[in-house]
Amino acid sequence: MRDARDIIKKPLVTEKSTNMMEEKRYAFQVDIRANKIEIKKAVEELFKVRVKSVNTLRVSGKKKRLGVHTGRRPDWKKAFVTLEEGSKPIEIFEGL
Q1: According to the model, what pLDDT value does residue 94 have?
Q2: On the CB side of 56, how many CA atoms lie within 13 Å of its CA?
Q3: Is residue 76 part of a domain?
Q4: Does a structural domain hold residue 11?
Q5: In the predicted model, what is the mean pLDDT of residues 50-78?
Q6: How many separate domains does the chain show?
Q7: Burial of 64 (0-12, 13-18, 19+ CB in 10 A)
Q8: What is the pLDDT of residues 4-37, one digit of tens each?
Q9: Does the residue 94 lie in any domain?
Q10: Per the domain annotation, does 95 fall within a domain?
Q11: Is 7 in a helix, a strand, or coil?
């Protein structure tokens, strides 16, 4: 199994994700090859919390243009993690 830090790349801090924190749901950018089971184990290992469910979605990279040259940003994967009732909140999101 891969290291938990290789699976969870970074937390996503957006207006929608900060509103979801009241319901104990958190958003992360994860490795595109990671599945729900790996994401659940990685979050539990890194943040010492109990995960109830994981929902994932693939985000297509946007097309970008610089002058006459066109390109694409890379595709990436987003994971929404719901914590179990009675579980403590994740510390990295506490100051938001």
Answers
A1: 64
A2: 17
A3: yes
A4: yes
A5: 96
A6: 1
A7: exposed
A8: 999 999 999 999 999 999 899 999 999 999 999 9
A9: no
A10: no
A11: helix
| Rg of the chain in Å (alpha carbons) | 15
d(CA 6, CA 20): 24
Neighbours of 77 (CB within 10 A): 17
Residues whose CB is less than 8 angstroms from the CB of residue 68 and which lie 6 or more positions away in sequence, other chains included: none
Question: What is the CB-side half-sphere exposure of residue 31 using CA atoms within 13 A?
Answer: 17
Diameter over CA atoms, the chain: 55
19 vs 83: CA distance, rounded Å: 15
Q: Residues 71-92: pLDDT tens digits?
A: 999 999 999 999 999 888 887 7
Q: What is the CATH number of the domain that holds 37?
A: 3.30.70.330
* Domain carrying residue 56: 4-84
Counting every residue written for the chain, the total comes to 96
- SS3 at position 27: strand
Tokens (6 digits) for 56: 């994932």
pLDDT of 93: 67
